[in-house]
Amino acid sequence: MTRRAVVIGTGHYLPERVVENAEFEDKLDTSDEWIRSRSGIERRHIAADDETTSDMATQAALAALTDAGLEGSDVDAIVLATSTADLTFPSAATMVQAAIGMTKGFAFDVQAVCAGFVYALSNANALIASGQANRVLVIGAETFSRIMDWTDRSTCVLFGDGAGAVLLEAQDQPGTTDDRGILATDLNSDGRYKDLLYVDGGVGTRSTGHLRMQGNQVFRHAVEKLAQTAHTALESAGLGADDVDWIVPHQANIRIIQGTAKKMGLPMEKVVVTVQDHGNTSAASIPLALSVGKKRGQIKEGDLVVTEAIGGGLAWGSVVLRW
Ligand code: ACO
């Protein structure tokens, strides 16, 4: 038998305020048509002034626990992917731990920008496979609205806020490619590309800073690296593109999503797409899409799912799992 990390619950949270593309037309030299055609984004949710990353993460975590019929006290660990934690420390994960009534186990944040959820899922899988935890909440949550330069039309129209969570549980499976649970992961980073996507603030500058991105350069890396990492993870699972039921990609740009699917030889009918409604929510985008995809009735038990993401670092990776 093989000990696998199986998804037993999903949940998400989106702030109440929805900002349509047209709202930007009054303040910036941009248009709904430009944003829609270049990115596929139509609207995004923006957190209320008093709403933080850990608040949203808590709501998503509670929804995932409800979905699984469990409570905070049933969880051993929280791995929370974010680049916009409420404070420099402690971690947003420990804030969620307290909020969901979990008084044992451990909680920590993972920071790999838009690839954060894939990194968090891979870490949680390792915790389960090694026997260090039996149930792990894996959360992606972001308030990128707080690090936007709202005068920069090339970035501020692209991002949104939100949170998503999955609950993983250790389950013994036969040890074949038909097993439920995480079957393979692939993580990569290359710090030489720091200047393509970064925040110009932090502890070093004593300010929060703003996101800076050379979007067209990131775009160039994205399709190539995403298709490559998905191929690598599928291969190490002993599977191929033909076996895939759903790609659940990082939701940054519909053109990247389409390009990656095409490079993998898969039709868009096999891709969960939420970018039109959420914008780029960085580490939150994949768990949001998993939760929405399940609610829509797209992702069902037994389906082979590939998640892939790229972001600041550059950092990128993928996870192959059977739902
Ligand atoms: N409205 C109107 N015009 C705009 C806007 C806007 N909001 N933003 C930029 N433009 C203009 C530019 O100024 C440029 O004008 P110019 O030709 O006169 O100089 C023109 O549009 C084209 O700009 P490009 O940046 O070349 O446009 P592109 O087609 O590459 O689309 C985009 C831009 C949407 C940012 C795209 O490059 C992209 O999605 N990149 C990848 C983003 C990504 O995946 N990031 C990774 C994850 S994020 C993370 O890790 C935090």
Question: What key phrases describe this protein's structure?
Answer:
Peroxisomal Thiolase, Chain A, domain 1, 32% helix, four-stranded mixed sheet, 2 domains, 13 strands, five-stranded mixed sheet, binds acetyl coenzyme *A, alpha/beta, 323 residues
Bound molecules: acetyl coenzyme *A
> Which strand order does the major sheet show?
1-7-6-4-5
**CATH architecture annotation of the largest domain:** 3-Layer(aba) Sandwich
Shape: globular
Report the mean per-residue pLDDT as an integer.
97
| CATH topology assignment of the largest domain | Peroxisomal Thiolase, Chain A, domain 1
- CATH class bucket of the largest domain: Alpha Beta
Number of helices: 10
CATH superfamily of the largest domain: Thiolase/Chalcone synthase
Number of E-type strands = 13
Biggest sheet layout: 5 strands, mixed
